[in-house]
What does this fold into?
Amino acid sequence: MQIALNILSLTSFYMCFALGLALVFGVMRVINFAHGEFYMIGAYSAFLCVSLIGPTTGALPAYIVSFAAAAIVTGLLGVLLYLVVVRKLMDKPLTIFIATLALSYMLQVVVVELFGPVGRSLPSPIPGIVRIGDAILPWSRVFVIVAISTLSVGLWFLLMRSDVGRRVRAVAQNPTGAVLQGVSVTRVGMMTLVAGSMIAGVSGAIMAPIGGITPFMGAAALWKAFIIIIVGGIGSIWGAVAAAFLFGTIDTFMTVAGAGRYLALTNAVIMLGVLSVMPSGLFGEKE
Amino acid sequence: MLQVDGLTLGYAGIRVLEEVSLRVRENTVTTLVGSNGAGKSTLMKGIMGLKPPLAGEVRLDGIRLAGLSTSEIVARGVVLVPEGRELFPKMTVLENLQVGASLGGDEARKKRNLATVTELFPVLGRKLSMAARNLSGGEQQMLAVGRALMASPRFLLLDEPSIGLAPLIEEQLMASIRQVANELGLGVLLVEQNAMLALEHSDWAYVIELGRITKSVASAELVDDPSIVDAYLGG
Ligand SMILES: Nc1ncnc2c1ncn2[C@@H]1O[C@H](COP(=O)(O)OP(=O)(O)OP(=O)(O)O)[C@@H](O)[C@H]1O
Ligand SMILES: [Mg+2]
It folds into this structure.
């Protein structure tokens, strides 16, 4: 039971984070290397929020406010990234790649200067434990599971069932076709970039109380997202979801078995293994 | 009325259209006849604002479209079914139609458009939840036309809409286009491989040769023009 819930929360987190990155790539053919730092900034926004207003409002309301704060901060960063970098360099993907890499380092340095290089931990949003069946879970864990699965299910519905989501997928699949149906590709691109940034930021705020935060946490998350996107198959939403579930499960079991320090290695081996058998990933298009 | 005045267009310095002028009226089907490479597709791209003109302009009801983006032109009711269909391959038939309806008006209007499309192409109605890429070539062509109709166009530009269709279906499509034009008061600009068939179902025709309009006559007249019959209508 406990394991199932952990798989659920890790899968949801991987899905949110990887889909944000994959959508930006699918729509704009741009890799945002600062995606991981948006996640980190979201986590630090939560940290700030909880330390500033937590003592007066209590931890739980402070966390809920922190989600909004993270969304606003990373959303603004997304807008800035679009206006300053992406819009001007639209037809130079390599330059954008380098520019977002630079942004990623800048954000790390800024956070190190403001909060120090040492990691922080956040107080629990809800103290105490809860019994679900034969499992004993801290309330804070339940809170994270509920929040992150709500976000991932919401994202899924937005993408697959709403007009906006359909337009985003249309642009990713055929920009010419989308333009001819009156879809503004630049507007959809900007929206996707901002939404992707916000999702990364809110995921960071949600995950912060269980993982702890450091200025360098973005790199690991980004690496994981790349592995998920590549294993799932570039351009495939279902593939990303399936791969998120695959790694959510594997990582949970490895952590439970006390082999957490081999995670990065195992993930990389799995990625190479999958690619050697299926060069375009589990659900990727055969070129 | 959709009006093209002295439009000159080119690719990388090579002029493809030379001062092309034509009119497409509401409630009529206008055919553009010309051999391969004459500039028919280029003209349609020019009207949609996909290629900036070197000279000349396009007007809708007398208002210049210069400077508008393609999506703004679509919003004003000019919609192109392009050569090569440009569908969304991994989305379902219904989703393709729904994207088509992005600028198609309110919910009631969208419902009516969907009814029109499934009545026109019943096979689409039966395969609404199938991915577009799994449709046959002819069905994909129908979807491309249907998707364009979802946008509630006032002027519909069709670039070889019946490519890949069986002769019987082709005949039906042409008849339907005429019918839809009359029912909805649409102005249609039609480019067809099978020019003879297109002319049978259209009111007015332009002939384009090497990027210039060389004839503008009633379709019925063109069908009887021996030089045209020799050149384009396969004798
Ligand atoms: N992207 C392009 N770059 C350079 N030249 C082009 C391009 N597209 C078309 N042309 C040229 O413009 C001319 C007109 O092409 P266009 O596609 O408009 O012809 P068409 O009348 O639609 O022909 P078809 O009946 O074969 O579809 C051709 O000579 C073609 O080589
Ligand atoms: Mg053509």
